[in-house]
């Protein structure tokens, strides 16, 4: 609940800055920054550092302005590094996923090829058996014909 007031304080900081009430801008900027740090809200922290930097410059507190700038850069660099790491991880995951897909596709193609070969072998075996049966029937038919003809000549 308290963390939801961070953006509100930041808005008040910006409003006071625009109205040139820099002391109040700093007060609300610090409150927003504290809440953002407690809640680990990086975006509000960055915006708070930025608002505080501008406000401190206006009152010519360059030491604090420099500190806010340093904090802003440090946090922004960390955020950039995190985003780069996420991008690299995303690319690695994409590569691994595509590699797995390719491997699965290859395995499926190999299974299909083996099934197809087995079907062709079974079909060839069936055709050989049918051809052998036809040849056997022809030989038996020929033998019966010659036996019949021989029997007919005998009588």
Report on this model:
The protein has 155 residues and is an all-alpha fold. The chain is 91% helix and 0% strand. It is built from four helices and no strands. The chain has helices at residues 6-18, 22-39, 42-58, 62-154. Helix 1 packs antiparallel against helix 2 and helix 1 packs parallel to helix 3 (42-58). The chain is rod-shaped. The protein starts with 5 loop residues before the first helix and ends with a helix. The mean pLDDT is 92.
Helicity level: over 70%
Structural class computed from helices and strand pairing: mainly alpha
Low-confidence stretches: none
Order of secondary-structure elements: HHHH
Give a short synopsis of this structure.
91% of the residues lie in helices and 0% in strands. With 155 residues, it is mainly α.
Secondary-structure map:
Blueprint: H1 6-18, H2 22-39, H3 42-58, H4 62-154
Which features does this protein show?
4 helices, 155 residues, mainly alpha, 0% strand
């Amino acid at each position: 609940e308290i963390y939801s007031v961070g953006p509100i304080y930041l808005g008040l900081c910006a409003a006071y800055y625009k109205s040139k009430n820099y002391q109040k801008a700093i007060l609300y900027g610090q409150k927003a920054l504290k809440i953002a740090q407690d809640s680990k809200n990086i975006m509000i922290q960055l915006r708070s550092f930025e608002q505080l930097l501008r406000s401190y410059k206006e009152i010519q507190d360059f030491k604090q302005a420099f500190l806010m700038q340093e904090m802003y850069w440090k946090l922004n660099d960390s955020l950039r590094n995190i985003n780069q790491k996420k991008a690299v991880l995303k690319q690695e995951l994409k590569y691994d996923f595509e590699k797995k897909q390719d491997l699965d596709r290859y395995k499926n193609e190999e299974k299909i090829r083996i099934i197809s070969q087995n079907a062709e072998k079974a079909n060839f075996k069936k055709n050989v058996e049918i051809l052998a049966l036809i040849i056997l029937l022809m030989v038996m038919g020929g033998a019966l014909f010659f036996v019949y003809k021989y029997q007919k000549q005998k009588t």
